[in-house]
Amino acid sequence: MAETSAVENPLREGIRLRRTPEACAMFIFGASGDLTERKLMPALYYLAREHLLPPGFSVIGCSRTKYSHEEFREKIRKAIATHLKLASDQDPILASFCKNIYYLADNFGDAPAYKKVTELCDRLDQE
Hints:
Shape: globular
Strand order of the largest sheet: 1-2-3
Radius of gyration: 19 Å
Largest sheet: 3 strands, parallel
Low-confidence stretches: none
Number of helices: 4
């Protein structure tokens, strides 16, 4: 029988640091729903906590339900603290993560609603 040895990946040789992606935005359509509260936002929070999201990362929630940016941020902050059973909802990483959450309310089945999306993206790019 031939002896097998562990083969190292030659493409990983010399790689020491992870590449940090550029600033970007994630859009969540149907953001006022249960899936966003229970699964998506807690997963994104974990990525932020582990420093796996780039600086300038934003989440833009889109749905028909009427919320302001602040109302939606507060809803998400409470949901993350509840579903992850955080010791304190005053976690500085959670606060920092929530600052970069935005919300747009409209009927996204209609083309004119996407003008709001474009305007918000342009504003975030400038900031």
